[in-house]
Each structure stands twice: as C-alpha cells, then as structure tokens.
Amino acid sequence: MRRRGLGRGLDALIPTDWTEPKEPTNAVTMVPIHLIQPNPFQPRQDFRDDELEVLAASIKRHGVLQPVILRPKEDGYELVAGERRWRAAMRAGLTEIPSIIRPCSDDEMLALALIENLQREDLNPLDEALAYQTLNERFHFTQEEIAQRVGKSRAAIANTLRLLQLPEPIQRALRDGTITEGHARALLGAPDEGVMLEAFRLVVKHHLSVRQTEALIRRLAQPRRRTRPQDPHLHALQQLLEERLQATVRLRKGRKGGVLEIRFYSDEELDALVQRLAGDLPF
C-alpha cells in the first residue's frame, strides 16, 4: 500500500510552534561510530538480525549511501534518524559514518524518528500503533489529524491503535510473526479477553487462516446455553476422547439419547480426525 503525505517535511507531524534552527545545515561530516548513542525516543522496537546482516553486507560493498542525522551531546552524539544504518555499519566493521549534525529538542527528535519509521513499509504494526499513540498523547493530535498527515483514513488509524488493546501474549505473537495483523484484527472481535485468548490458542495450534479465525470468533462469540452440571462419568469420557482424538469434544446426554460433538477448525484437522476415527477403512 502506498503511503502518501509523508514528503511534506517536519511540519506534517510535529507541533505548529516548532521552528527550524536559524541556520540549518545539511553538511555531511564523518563521525566516529563509538561517539554515537542510540535514540532514546526510538519508536521502532524490532531490528531483525537477518535484515541488519543484509544491510551490513551492502554497506561493506557500497558504503553508507545516506547519512544518519545526529544531535550533539556533551559526551558525543545521539541518533535522531538512521539507527538501522548505524547498527548495520557497526556490523560491517566501520569506525565512522557519514552524518548530518542538527541541534534539536527532545520533541523534534521524537518527531523525526516517527517520520522516518512511519515511512518504512516493513514497520511492525505494533510499533506503528505506538507511533500513532505517541502522536496523540505527546503532540495532542487527533486521529483525524494523524490520518491527514500520514495519508491514511481515520478508520485505518483507529484500527491500528486497537492493536494496543490485545493481551500481552497476543501482542508478543504479533510482534514475532507467529500471527499476522489480519489474525490480530479478527481476534479483537472477541466479546471478552477470555474468549480472545481461547481463540488465539486454537489459531496458533491449528495454524488457522485469517478467514478461519474470523469464523472461529463468530462461533465462540455466540451465547452459550446453560446446561446442567455434567455427570462425572461423562466428563471423564469427554476428557478421554479429547486426549485420544486431539480435538475439542462435547458430550451431552439426555433422557432419550445424547450428542457427541467433535470440533475441527481446518480441512487438515478434519483429515487427521478421519484417520484417527476410521483408521485404514476404505472410502
């Protein structure tokens, strides 16, 4: 998806009372890497090793093609933008890196870091949500204002921010790639956290697609009928069947019979159930 509206400069994302330094300079200078400290306001939390290795290999061959932006500190410099390049340059064995020095405040530094990261297509959706949250809480932007500045709809901003409502286990799975953003959005449709975590467990266990996850949430969200306390013998049988079939089983008994229900959540799981139930019987 193309991201529009990010080429307007700092005034697109930072408070209106911020002004450029009186004498801005784009002069590039070589700065020793050991004098540079990471950005304390870095909104990006994930720096994947495989991506850094690829970038480090490119830097070894071609050098750093785009300078990083630094602000001076008493004991050296702090990164404003370009942390991936800085990390990759260290991996490549460089001792200095081309840099542009710009004095700036903490807010200006944070705004620059947000801009750089929101421009990246591979930004983790949770980091994107945290960036929007920071724009709202620190710079007091509304969702509509954020949407206008990053070229997205207000609904898209709101949906991304909702990812921060996910329980920690699901956020962790989204961050490490166990589930996708589509899975996470589907799980947010659960009526409560208990149902959400139950669905999440099934999604991971059975490798459900996003569409299957949506269907699962709809089923789990349906009101459950009240039933009488289950007979201990039936409960034991139900547990035994679940262990043998490796599936969710519901066993109910009435006056004139009963119901044995075996649930599956994918075609692959159905095939496995058939094999366990039928063995080598021909079809």
Reconstruct the topology from this structure.
Layout: E1 28-32, E2 36-37, H1 49-62, E3 68-73, E4 76-81, H2 83-91, E5 96-101, H3 106-118, H4 125-137, H5 143-150, H6 154-162, H7 168-176, H8 181-187, H9 193-206, H10 210-221, H11 232-245, E6 248-254, E7 257-263, H12 267-278
Parallel strand pairs: 2-4, 3-5
Antiparallel strand pairs: 1-5, 3-4, 6-7
Helix pairs in contact: 1-2, 4-6, 5-6, 8-10, 9-10
What about the largest sheet?
Answer: 5 strands, mixed
Number of strands: 7
Mean pLDDT: 80
Instruction: List the uncertain runs.
Output: 1-23
- End-to-end CA span: 47 Å
The number of helical runs is 12
Portion of residues in beta strands equals 5-15%
Structural summary, described in words:
This protein has 283 residues and is of the alpha/beta class. Among the domains are: 56 residues, no CATH class; 47 residues, no CATH class. The protein has twelve helices and seven strands. A five-stranded mixed beta sheet has the order 1-5-3-4-2. Strands 6-7 form a two-stranded antiparallel ribbon. A hairpin with a 2-residue loop joins strand 6 and strand 7. Helix 1 packs across helix 2, helix 8 packs parallel to helix 10 and helix 9 runs antiparallel to helix 10. The longest helix has 14 residues. 24% of the residues are buried.
